[in-house]
Amino acid sequence: MSRPGPEPHPPGLHLSGIHGRTLHPGRAAGQVLRLSEPVSFWGGVGEDGRIVDVHHPQRGASLAGQVVVMDGGRGSSSSATIVAELVRVGAAPAALVLGECDSILVVGALVGAELYDVQMPIIELAPADLDRIGPGRVEVEADNAGAGTGLATIRATPPEQAS
Amino acid sequence: MVTGTSPLVLTPDEQAMLDGGSGRAVALAMRLVVGVARAGGATRLLPAESAHVDGCIYHGRAALDLAERLVELGGRVAIRTTLNVGSLDLLHPGMVRADAELADGGRRLMDAYLALGCEQTWSCAPYQISHRPAQGTHVAWAESNAIAFVNSVLGARTDRYGDFLDIAAALTGRVPAAGLHLDSERRPVLLLDCSAVPAELWEHDAAWAALGAVLGEVAGTRVAALTGVPGSLDDGGTTEDRLKAVAATAASAGGVALFHVVGVTPEEVSVDGLPAHRVGPADLRAARDRLTTSLDDRLDAVSLGTPHFSVSEFAALAREVDEEVRFAVPVYVSTSRAVLAEATRLGHLAPIERAGARIVTDTCTYVTPVLDPAAHSVMTSSGKWAWYAPANLGVDVVLGSLAECVASARAGRVVRDESPWS
Q1: Model confidence, pTM
Q2: Interchain CB distance below 8 Å, A81 and B59
Q3: Which position among A76, A78, A79, A103 bears the catalytic label?
């Protein structure tokens, strides 16, 4: 599905508020993990949330509990099942931040929320904003604006709350 | 700042489903459809006439939890729904060497989808016998080869559905008005000019799998038009079998969900001004060689029927086998129950089984443990099998025509005729 994505922020704007579009609502916090290329959850992520794709430059990195930032989704529709499975076992990312909508990952998050009552927010940012997140700990807030598209915000966690 | 978009607008019927008026299972399913429609920026939903569901193969507990939740909530499909392959061959117990989790989970998952009112087709090629949507109708199909086939060869309209969204569309009878449901997304954006491929190479079935690989690699996920490709969809199945191979391999190698073969497939398209790629015999040969990882003539098994073998392919195989010369290595043929019944009725099965072939139904040899784990080198006529088996099964593959697969199975070593490729 293609649609116009969010517009990038002007240069110099502080991280205290990068805004994007909600793909799946929820609130979360975690360390930023920027993936240098998208990973396919199906076949590319193990049941403990680690990257197992031998071709991925960040093989071995754990997505569990992280705010995972990647350009987009990749691969088979079976990735939806893997996302829901990671939610089930508690090894899912805290949030996903994408440069373009990926409906397969959205379905996985929707099912994870229905079955296990865990909200893993997914937000879409302008691709130029992806590299402006982190490093460090951030909070993600993705609201659900009724029938429209919700507003999502990423903020750096204030130092006294950082862990 | 967020670019403004129009919100999703539901009809009163759709809103009632979301609010629980058609039961809790439909409401859950509608939350999935609406969630995806909003994320993708759709402004409305469309009624779908049928569904093909791929979620019935066991990939873990979460998929079973959803299917059993929908059953428990009283779910029932709203439109005709066929099922893709499962994890087990229910007609041939013991064919799949399943561990306890796969045997139990796989069976429960298959049972749950039947309880939701789906038809027990258990096939990745439901389009071969009974489930053939009319041109222009909206459907919700999953499984990449079936999506590409139903869009391209039958001219029905589906986007790329998959796990969870397929059954959600089946329960609600609705899909987001987005992607390949829309005229604007179905037009070709590039051209593959195949007029330099000689007529005799088109008679070699491996050339069609090779064409699929080239299409997938060039087009990626884009819609392509092909010119210079022979065929007629009224020829008794041969062209359908060939386009099945193109669709399946292109979906594997690239993510193709729709292509147009000018003069053959049903949708009228304009190719004026499209950026053109010329495809010649050397390109097809190179693609065939990329789908071959084995370096010598060792052969441990032959796998046919990915996507599932058709009645016309069984007829061709029956003509190739020699009942007096049994296969020297195991030969597996994956197919659907419906095709198996029809091929048996037509007398194609008996000579094939006498030659020693093993028929696999309900599942497929590249997604479930069927082959002997000692098999290292396997020959196939399927570009899709050749694409996935090295990673899924850890085997080396050789891509060849059906005739080459049969000759090799008899000889117990890889036999290929290089002359059509030179």
Answers
A1: 0.92
A2: yes
A3: A76
